[in-house]
Amino acid sequence: AQSVTQLDSQVPVFEEAPVELRCNYSSSVSVYLFWYVQYPNQGLQLLLKYLSGSTLVKGINGFEAEFNKSQTSFHLRKPSVHISDTAEYFCAVSDVMDSNYQLIWGAGTKLIIKP
Amino acid sequence: NAGVTQTPKFQVLKTGQSMTLQCAQDMNHEYMSWYRQDPGMGLRLIHYSVGAGITDQGEVPNGYNVSRSTTEDFPLRLLSAAPSQTSVYFCASSASRDRGNTIYFGEGSWLTVV
Question: Is the bond into B8 cis (omega within 30 degrees of 0)?
Fold first, then answer.
């Protein structure tokens, strides 16, 4: 069964520094990949998604992620973070051939921006 | 833009009590779902619906009931609350079950069972 690992539960980073949030999934079958962001006391919202095509996916708020099939990873990056990026970030994956259309979620990574 | 609206935002229940979490969406979405979010565990699917009159179980359905009498509404009922149901609950909707569709989430309901 598919599983998702977000390797860091918290990532502290100084404002204007670059950041990478790591996401690995277990199975190398064809997958759809997602990053969602949850700002404090709010619901989740889509940051970006990979369905097919270019392995470099650009999302909102200057974030991008790269799909690496050989390493079964979908790491999220931003070249320069802002205090407003303080949030929890969730990676999710779904097997393309899963007839149950199941979406498997990672445990989340809290991005902490230090001024 | 209302999107997905869920109520109440906060609730404290005693063990054994029942309650209903309300969820409504105004985007005419076919697919609606309920998740629970627990620390260190990500989101887990409780129940989902692919249209009015159709519901099905997700990963953790025990202790919860749902119904979908209209396209807009998808309430979640806790039948007899237990401390293990202390969690944050999110209602979500998307145009269809197709995973390529964006999922829209409500702002969450914080439930504590004592």
Answer: yes
